[in-house]
Design a protein that fits this description.
By secondary structure, this protein is an all-alpha fold. The chain has three helices and no strands. Helix 2 packs antiparallel against helix 3. It is elongated, with a radius of gyration of 28 Å.
Length: about 160
């Protein structure tokens, strides 16, 4: 499927790029405003963001390496298991049993870490809902101010 580039399509693309840049600027200013404005809803958002960022750091530094090690050990176990012929299987049986038991222990440790993280995220769910409610109220308040301002501007014109 060939796409034909026309002056009209380039003009439309140019307009869309400008709109995207304007929306990005508004989003950036809004995020920057979260650090400047002193509002309870903004404060709760910043606190929640810090908690979630901390949870993500803990996951990436503590849990993810353990999970990666577990996956590698399972892959190594399976590769070794595949390499052993039936003739030598009884010779390596003790080794396989020990390796499987170590893998089981690693799985339990990894599962415990994931359960803790899941519990933390579930605990954060209520905070997220509360912050969203606060931000929705703030949005309505700003929309009303915007509407009043635009009405005043129309009356003066």
């Amino acid at each position: 499927m060939k796409l034909k580039v026309t002056d009209e399509s380039l003009d439309k693309f140019n307009d869309e790029i400008i709109k995207a840049a304007e929306m990005l600027q508004v989003a950036t200013l809004s995020l920057r405003g979260l650090y400047i404005v002193n509002s309870p809803s903004v404060d709760s958002f910043v606190k929640l963001r810090k908690k979630i960022t901390n949870d993500a750091k803990i996951y990436s530094e503590k849990v993810l390496p353990i999970s990666s090690d577990l996956i590698r050990s399972i892959q190594n176990f399976c590769n070794l298991y595949d390499c052993v012929s039936i003739d030598y299987f009884k010779y390596y049986l003790g080794y396989f049993v020990n390796e499987a038991d170590e893998g089981r222990k690693m799985c339990k440790v990894t599962l415990k870490h994931y359960e803790r993280i899941l519990m933390e995220f579930k605990n954060r769910e209520n905070e997220v809902v509360e912050v969203l409610k606060q931000l929705e109220l703030k949005t309505k308040e700003y929309d009303q101010k915007k509407k009043r301002t635009s009405e005043i501007c129309r009356c003066e014109a």
